[in-house]
Amino acid sequence: QVQLVESGGGLVQPGGSLRLSCVASGFTFWWYDMSWYRQAPGKERELVARITSTGGRTNYADNVKSRFTISRDNAKNTVYLQMNSLKPEDTAIYYCNVYRQSSDYWGQGTQVTVSS
Q: How far apart are CA 60 and CA 89, in angstroms?
């Protein structure tokens, strides 16, 4: 079965950096685009970044462009989210996602808290 396991979240000061990882299993990872979403308290889940199956194309939400970078290592079945210049409004649970065979699959999420 599809499994997505996120890690790398934590507490960081404004202006700091974190790198999230998501290890995938149970499907042919290199066939599929992968995404990171986030959900802040009281808000809807939103798309943060997406990367194509080969890693050749990425896109980002406007509010994270130039600060976040999504990447993947198909040999390790892993997708990453490098987050720089973090702001308090980046505080959320971050989820890894794959859309496969007409279904969305999600990890358990990793908490990112940006606070001084």
A: 16
pLDDT for the residue numbered 116: 95
Instruction: Report the C-alpha gap between 81 and 48 in whole angstroms.
Output: 9
pLDDT in tens, 22-73: 999 999 999 999 999 999 999 999 999 999 999 899 999 999 999 999 999 9
Tokens representing residue 61 in the block:
């939400």
Count other Cβ atoms within 10 Å, centred on residue 36: 26
Left if phi > 0, otherwise alpha if psi is -120 to 50, otherwise beta: which for 102?
left
Alpha carbon 115 to its chain's center: 20
Say which DSSP state 8 is in.
-
Question: How do 110-114 and 10-12 pair as beta strands?
Answer: parallel
Cβ–Cβ under 8 Å, residues 22 and 78: yes
Chain-centre distance for alpha carbon 22: 7
How far apart are the two ends of the chain, measured CA to CA in Å? 40
Overall size of the chain counted in residues: 116
